[in-house]
Specification:
This protein is mainly alpha-helical. It has helices at 6-18, 24-43, 45-50, 53-75, 92-100, 103-115, 123-155, 159-181.
Length: 184
């Protein structure tokens, strides 16, 4: 669904910083939150949220603050062999919250959902097919980003290289948020 956004960058960064298994709670939060965004788009709830500029601004500010915190956590995560890592990665709720507050998710999913019709004669079946297909994409893409980060971490056995990778992922996370929030 386009270029990597805050959720996918955070998954790759957490995979690199903490490994695949320790980051599963966060992954499940991202998947559940992104699926909730999909359901809000499908049911029209998104229109109600977007009609409240103050709520949208507050969500964007909170998401930005959390992204900066998450970037710091990734940049300063322990480096070296996974077995020596004692810090805990974010869990379900932060992942869910980030996915819900991610403006790029609303834009990308909304464009794909509204831009395609799978079943012309039956809107209900069309909606069910789109929900199923997009949910599958959400699961596969987000799991792949976490797996990529975790696989990448195995190459980073040097503390200097590991720290550089963590800082790179943290920077990419912040840049992806700036990109997502920049006016078109």
């Amino acid at each position: 669904m386009g270029s990597p956004g805050p959720a996918t960058m955070s998954l790759a960064g957490l995979g690199t910083a903490f490994g695949f298994r320790p980051s599963l709670g966060y992954l499940l939060g991202i998947i559940a939150g992104t699926t909730a965004v999909l359901l809000m788009i499908a049911t029209g709830v998104t229109a109600l949220i977007l009609a409240q500029p103050l709520l949208l601004t507050a969500l964007t500010i909170l998401a930005g603050i959390y992204i900066l915190y998450l970037a710091w956590k990734i940049a300063t995560a322990p480096v070296g062999p996974l077995a020596l890592r004692s810090d805990h990665p974010p869990a379900f709720v932060p992942g869910f919250s980030l996915a819900i507050a991610n403006p790029k998710a609303f834009a990308a999913i909304g464009a794909v959902y509204a831009g395609h019709t799978l079943v012309v004669d039956n809107l209900t079946v069309d909606a069910v097919y789109k929900l199923g297909a997009l949910t599958l994409v959400i699961v596969i893409v987000n799991t792949a980003w976490l797996a990529f980060g975790a696989a990448f971490s195995r190459v980073l056995t040097s503390p200097v290289t590991g720290r550089a990778a963590n800082v790179l992922f943290a920077t990419l996370l912040v840049v992806s948020v700036v990109w997502a929030l920049a006016p078109a």
